[in-house]
Amino acid sequence: MPIVHIELIEGRSQAQLKDLVKDVTDAVSKNTGAPAEHIHVILSEMQKNRYSVGGVLKSDEEAK
């Protein structure tokens, strides 16, 4: 049973997230031979004020 964890910053639409988990499931199934119904995908969305790159919060980047 493959388990895939994906961490991303909030802000994607429900349609984008559905497409993402479908594409990831298809890729894992293709490359491991695991049936899609046994593949688990966990999405963890972070608030922009809880993630930084280079010491700058993503929420602060938008304020510029």
From TrEMBL:
Keyword Isomerase applies: yes
Alphabetized InterPro entries for the sequence:
4-OT, 4-OT-like_dom, Tautomerase/MIF_sf
Q: Which GO terms describe its molecular function?
A: isomerase activity
Q: Does the keyword Isomerase apply?
A: yes
Q: What is its EC number?
A: 5.3.2.-
Q: What class of enzyme is it?
A: isomerase
Keywords of this entry = Isomerase
Q: Which residues form the active site?
A: P2 (proton acceptor)
Family indicated by similarity: Belongs to the 4-oxalocrotonate tautomerase family.
Q: Which residues form the 4-oxalocrotonate tautomerase-like domain?
A: 2-60
Q: What is this protein called?
A: Tautomerase
